[in-house]
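Before the break, one more example. Copy the sequence into your notebook; we will annotate it together after we see the structure.
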Amino acid sequence: MPGAALPGRPGNLTKEQELRLQEMWTATLKVFGVSGFNNGTNGDAVSITGSETAEQAGTVGSEKKKKKRVNLFSRKHHDDVGTEDAESVSATDANDKYGQAKEFHKVLESQSPEAIRTAFWSMVKHDDPDGLLLRFLRARKWNVQNALIMLISTMHWRMQEMHVDDDIVRRGEAGALDDSINSTSPTKKEGHDFLTQMRLGKSFLHGTDKEGRPLTFVRVKLHKQGEQSEASLERFTVYTIETARLLLSPNVDTAAIIFDMTDFSMANLDYGPVKFMIKVFEANYPESLGVVLVHKSPWMFQGVWKLIRGWLDPVVAGKVHFTKNVEELAEFVERSHIIRELGGDDPWTYQYVEPVAGENKLQSDGVTRQRLLDERAAVVKDYEATTQQWIRDPNSTHALQQRRSELTNRLRTGYWELDPYLRARTLYDRTGIIREGGQIQYYGSPNSATGSNAGHHSIQNGPLPPEHRTDELD
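Here is what the structure looks like once it is written out:
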């Protein structure tokens, strides 16, 4: 079960790691155009107004402004950032197999500071902002320059390529259902294909491993190449990852994946989705995997694994373990938490519950949404200002550090109040796993239409309103 913060996380940093985090914030706030770190842009004018604003914020209006921001890592600025000189940006580090350095330059040339800043705070959700930056730093071995390139490239991917927050998360399953009924091809097919995967349970979330990490199950035998469009496969993958992020808590910042290879055949082999999954985890969701369990893989998979292993970052490959039976799986997951389908004692079975009419009605309450967004924007501005004080004071006081912690908690609890106005309800909301106020309850949920009564485990991601703090949660 989760305990103290792991090394390299908020609350468990060495002096050198804390310095790298301060340098990362300095570089990030420069890109955001925040006053005091703005490189000639007007950070005070930036507002955090939700996922739509990232699209509406537009591009940088002048070539002069573009030039200043592209030269963020030029020789005359590199001392401010505390990393290597500018010429290495073009090549970044040896791990830039996804061309993020090139993408980084493109983002700075085409996107406004407002859009990038908005995308970042939209991604934060209930996470610790320090924790999010630390993911990128750890993934790039504490090299601030390379971590920033990775971060900004991810913001571009979320805004312009996948439209994570303004489409995938905002429209969700109900949006896919509407597309499958009311849209025309190819949107109609993509909506249908997305829901087919949800209904099959090709991938689903349930329970935790021995470290308290949420479990993601992938039933490989349910995938057949060509049955769903590439776009729907990618959308389903990102949707599952984003939903799993909601199940994380402050001291549990990674997930566990179980690839169930039962009855695998070559008809299930499809390298396209595998490559996409590897890419998004390595490039856009760094340091998010705690362990990957490949369960009951047949002998024919050995050759496939040699190929896949070559595509993986060595650190990610080192997290992959093969289990042949329930006894080996129980080394990682309590037997009571292993679903009966895999030979464990948890009688829970996957059953898809269709979206309910009106479940996303709060999204249409623009007045309340804007009020909550404005409140969050004020906390964000306070957090950024307090972070600047922390950076400038090498011997920051306990009171200043405590202030940052308080603001982090306000961002977390404020997100859960804002959540139903921005995010479409998921299967896990409908079955009582994700509950109001950020309470996560996997086992014995009283509202669950699919859960079992075998045991109980809950995680507090944010305080529940008084009317929900009852004995039914115990």
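Residues 104 and 153 are 5 Å apart (CA to CA). Strands lie at 203-208, 214-219, 255-260, 289-295, 320-323, 434-435, 439-441, 458-460. Try to locate both features in your own notes.
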